[in-house]
Specification:
Mean pLDDT: 90
Shape: elongated
Structural class: alpha+beta
Low-confidence stretches: 508-525
Strand order of the largest sheet: 6-10-11-18-17-16-15-14
CATH architecture of the domain at 166-313 and 372-479: 2-Layer Sandwich
Number of helices: 15
Number of strands: 18
CATH superfamily of the domain at 166-313 and 372-479: Bira Bifunctional Protein, Domain 2
Largest sheet: 8 strands, mixed
Radius of gyration: 30 Å
Length: about 525
C-alpha cells in the first residue's frame, strides 16, 4: 500500500472516531473575529513573550504541523495570509492538546479560539484555548518542495497550486483588479455596461472559426459568439445608445498557443459620434490606467521586450512596414510572390485563402519585430470588412491596432455605417467562405436591416485578457484560473474497504465505500 493510501485510510478512521463521539467533521459555520492579517497588523507592537488577554477567533487550513508532544505548532492559512498556532498542554489543557494531536492533520480546516502572544523567537502566534474541526481532509497536501512540479498538473489541479503557491492566488487577485479597473474606467467615462447574446444564429463581428451547437427547443443550429456583441452593440447605436461596453466570455475554435485560447474574456466598447482617432486617445489613457492600477508602473519587461507606456506611442503604417521588412508591395505584388516570401520566412498558411489573408500573415511576421507601444494604422479594406474607408484613400480603412511586445493587444476602428457598402463587403466575405476560408465573416441580414435605419458615426474597440498576460509576463493560458485541459487517461480505482458506520449520510446505503479517483491514490499492487 502506498503512503498516500495509508494516509487516506488513516483519515477515514479519524472521521469514524469523531462521529462516534458526536463530533461532526464537516460543520456548517464558524464565526470569526479576525483574519490572520488583521491579527498580525493589530498586534505588531507586541514585545517578545508578551501575551494579550484578548480572545480572538480565526479559521483556516492547517498547512504545517510540528508535534512535539506537550507543545505543538501549526501554520494556519486563510485567504489573507498565515499565522502560527500553538497548542501547549500547560496552557491549552491536556484534553485540547490530545484532541489536536490525535485528530488534526495538515490540510484540515479548523476554527481556533485563543489569545495572541509573541513567541521567544519573535513570531506573533495564537495560543489555542478551543479548537473545532470544520472540514476533515482525506487527501494529503502536496509536499512543499516536491509536490506539483509538473506544469500541466498545476493547471489541471489549480486549487492545489493556489493552496501551495501564494503567488498564484496573487496573480488572480491582480486579474480581478485588471477587469475592475477596465469597468470603472469606462463607467467613469459615461459608458453603459450591456449584455448581448452568447448564442447567435450568425457568427459575426470578427474573422474567426466559431463553435457550433444546436438549440433543441427551436430545432436550429447556433454559434457561440466570436466577438463581444459587436453587431448587437452597433444595433444599440442605431437604437440611440451613445456609449456602451460589454465584458464577457467569447469563443473561437482555433489553436492554442502562448497568445490564444478557445474561450476567454473580452471587452468591447462602442462610442457614438467618435472616430478611430478619438478611440486611440481613449485607449492609450485606459491602458496607462490599467498598468498603474494592476502593476504600479508604466515600465515593465514582458516576453523579452522592454515596454514603457509612458513614452510617446508610435504609429506604424501597415503598407510601409510590410514593404520595409519583407520587400513586398501589398498592392502591386501577386499571390505567387507573397506565397514565395511566406515560404522563405517559414510562415504557415492555408492555400485556400486569398491574397489579403496571406498579406495579413506576412504582417504578423513583421509585428514580432515591434516592441511598441504603438498603433498600427492604414490597413487594407479587404481585411477589415466592418471598418469605415478612409476619405483620402478608399483602399484603406480607419482602423487602429494596439501593438505591444510584438503582438496585437487590441483592435478598433471607425465603424462602417453605410449599409450599401456593408452589404457588398459581406458578399465578398461569403465568396471567400465558399472557397474554404473558415474565418471569413457571415452575411448578417438583420444587422444590415438595422443599418438601413441609420447608425451614427461610431468608434468601436476591443481587447482580451491577452493584455493581462502581457502585464504579468506569462503565457495567456497560465493566466486563466481553470483553463480547458485534455481529459486525463482513465485510472484504476482503488476501493477503500472501510465502512463509515457512524456517518448519518450513508446509513441508508449498503455501499458505504469511498472510491477515490485522485492520482495520489492509484491502485497498489
Amino acid at each position: 500500500m502506498s503512503r498516500e493510501d495509508e494516509i487516506f485510510k488513516s483519515r477515514i478512521a479519524k472521521i469514524e472516531e469523531l462521529r462516534s463521539k458526536n463530533i461532526n467533521p464537516y460543520t456548517n459555520r464558524f464565526e470569526r473575529t479576525h483574519s490572520s492579517k488583521q491579527i498580525l497588523d493589530k498586534y505588531s507592537n507586541l514585545k517578545v513573550e508578551e501575551k494579550t488577554k484578548d480572545i480572538v477567533k480565526i479559521a483556516g487550513r492547517v498547512m504545517t504541523l510540528r508535534n512535539l508532544g506537550k507543545i505543538n505548532f501549526s501554520t494556519i492559512q486563510d485567504f489573507n495570509g498565515k499565522i502560527q498556532l500553538v497548542v501547549q498542554e500547560d496552557e491549552s489543557g491536556k484534553i485540547l492538546n490530545d484532541f489536536f494531536l490525535n485528530n488534526v492533520d495538515s490540510g484540515d480546516f479548523i476554527g481556533v479560539e485563543g489569545i495572541v502572544f509573541r513567541t521567544k523567537r519573535g513570531e506573533i502566534s495564537i495560543l489555542a484555548k478551543k479548537i473545532e474541526i470544520l472540514t476533515k481532509s482525506l487527501s494529503p497536501l502536496p509536499e512543499k518542495y516536491h509536490g506539483l512540479q509538473d506544469s500541466e498538473e498545476k493547471l489541471r489541479r489549480r486549487y492545489l497550486d493556489i493552496i501551495m503557491n501564494p503567488e498564484i492566488k496573487d496573480l488572480f487577485l491582480k486579474k480581478a483588479k485588471f477587469w475592475q479597473t477596465v469597468r470603472n474606467f469606462l463607467l467613469e467615462k459615461g459608458f453603459i455596461e450591456v449584455e448581448t447574446p452568447v448564442l447567435e444564429p450568425t457568427a459575426g463581428g470578427a474573422a474567426a472559426t466559431p463553435f457550433k451547437t444546436h438549440h433543441n427547443s427551436l430545432n436550429m443550429d447556433l454559434y457561440l459568439r466570436i466577438s463581444m456583441g459587436e453587431l448587437w452593440q452597433k444595433k444599440l447605436m442605431v437604437a440611440g445608445f451613445e456609449k456602451t461596453f460589454e465584458i464577457g466570455r467569447q469563443f473561437r475554435n482555433e489553436g492554442i498557443d502562448m497568445e490564444h485560447l478557445q474561450d476567454y474574456t473580452q471587452m468591447e466598447f462602442y462610442w457614438a459620434y467618435a472616430d478611430y482617432k478619438d478611440g486611440m486617445k481613449l485607449v492609450e489613457e485606459m491602458y496607462k490606467k490599467i498598468a498603474i492600477d494592476v502593476i504600479g508602473t508604466l515600465k515593465f519587461k514582458t516576453h523579452d521586450y522592454e515596454i514603457d507606456l509612458g513614452k510617446k506611442w508610435e504609429t506604424y503604417d501597415y503598407e510601409s512596414l510590410i514593404k520595409e521588412k519583407t520587400k513586398i508591395d501589398i498592392y502591386k505584388d501577386d499571390e505567387t510572390k507573397i506565397k514565395k516570401k511566406l515560404d522563405e520566412l517559414k510562415m504557415e498558411y492555408d492555400k485556400r485563402v486569398d491574397k489579403w489573408r496571406l498579406i495579413d500573415i506576412l504582417w504578423k511576421y513583421c509585428r514580432k519585430q515591434l516592441s511598441g507601444p504603438g498603433f498600427l494604422v492604414n490597413q487594407p479594406v479587404e481585411i477589415s470588412p466592418l471598418a469605415k474607408r478612409q476619405e483620402s484613400d478608399k483602399r484603406k480603412v480607419q482602423q487602429f491596432q494596439v501593438i505591444l511586445a510584438g503582438t496585437e493587444m487590441g483592435n478598433g476602428y471607425s465603424e462602417l455605417n453605410d449599409p450599401i457598402d456593408q452589404r457588398e463587403r459581406f458578399k465578398r466575405q461569403m465568396g471567400l467562405k465558399a472557397k474554404g476560408d473558415t474565418e471569413a465573416q457571415e452575411h448578417d441580414e438583420s444587422f444590415l436591416e438595422a443599418l438601413e435605419y441609420g447608425m451614427p458615426p461610431t468608434c468601436g474597440f476591443g481587447f482580451s485578457e491577452r493584455l493581462f498576460s502581457c502585464l504579468m509576463d506569462r503565457p495567456v493560458r497560465e493566466c486563466v484560473i481553470f483553463p480547458l485541459m485534455r481529459p486525463e487517461a482513465k485510472k484504476e480505482e482503488k476501493v477503500v474497504e472501510k465502512e463509515i458506520k457512524n456517518n448519518p449520510n450513508t446509513q441508508k446505503s449498503n455501499k458505504n465505500k469511498i472510491k477515490p479517483k485522485s492520482k495520489f491514490r492509484k491502485k497498489s499492487k
